[in-house]
Structures are given as structure tokens and as C-alpha cells.
Amino acid sequence: QFFSALRSEFFRLRGFWRAKLSVWRFSHCDFYRFEKFDEREYAPRERDAFPTPHHPDYTYAPQPMIPIPPVSRHEFRKRFDSCRKLAYCPHRLISWFRKCNCPSQTAKAHSRELLDKFPKKTSQLDEYSEVRETFWGIYARQAICFRWILFYNLLCITPLIWLIFMWLFVWKERDLESALMPTSIMLAMLSVFWSTFLGSLKFGQDA
Predict the structure, then answer these.
(1) Tens digit of each residue's pLDDT (9 = 90 or more) over 145-168
(2) Is the distance from CB of 60 to CB of 120 less than 8 angstroms?
């Protein structure tokens, strides 16, 4: 239930078009200390931070938390992408003969054990107050999905491949150099665009 709600809220905050079409995809969650500095205004302050042991406003186990982070990136991603219902399992499209091994479908998913490691605030955070307040929680991170980059490249090149096919086999033109010219220009533009885009990132992950 928790990861299903996390996924729904993540996509809601991103918006429909960004969630469906962006090359940025969910990677994992980091544990952060946050600061509320104004009405509904927050800032991440410290990564891999947990409340002090026996904090009066937070519960988690074990105390102190060792190691930090208590949940690996791989497990976050695995549970984020897990099936909510077996009947709608998208992994069945990959293999009709393989049983779904998503954490939500396995008998020993250890969900309760995992959630015990999360810092849980026992009182309500007043989002609309102007009081500066420190709190702890998880921070969703995104990373570049190269499969989507490949998809957009193919989407740009496909009409040009069709043009080459029509040029050679339908229009019966013999000037292959002219047929390849638009494709060469497109490949050069894509190379410049993606090299500039990826070069401006820090290790391919959002800050």
C-alpha cells in the first residue's frame, strides 16, 4: 500500500505529460533532513540523516539506525515498480510462463519490516504555518532512462528511413547521396543535442 501510494503521488506531482514522456524516471529515494522555512515551502538540508534516537516526535527501528540509508536503491526501484494487482501485472507481457516475483506478490515481501526503518512523524506537520521547522523523510530522486533516449532517437530517424526507402524503391531515384543527406543532418543534430544535454548533467542524475 505504501509504495502504491508513493507511486501515485509521484506521478501526480510530476503531471501527466512529464510522467509519460520525460526521459527522467524514478530512480530511488534518499533519506533527508528537511527544513520548512515558510508556508508550504521546504528545502532538503542533509542527506542520509535520521532523527536522534528516542526522538519524542519520531519512531523508527532500530535506534540508532545502522546502516544509513537502510534501504538500497535497488530495493526502492523494485518495490516502486511492483505490481499492485496480479491481474494487471505488466511483467506478464515479458514472459507468459514466468511467475511474477514482484515484492507485492511474494509471500515474504517483508513490507512491515521495511516500513519500520522509515522515520515516521507522530504529530501532524502544519504546512500552512510560518514557523521554521525541521523534519525528516524521504526524497524521491530521478535518473536518465537511456531506453527513452533511444526511443526518441528512433522516432526522429524513422521518417528519414521511410524517405530513403521511398527514394530508392518507389521513386526509383539513383542518387543515394541525396537520399542520405537528411538522415546525416538529423544524426548530426541529435549527436550535438544529446551530448550537450547529457554533458550538462551530473552523473546522469538530478541534483
Answers:
(1) 889 988 998 998 898 888 888 888
(2) yes
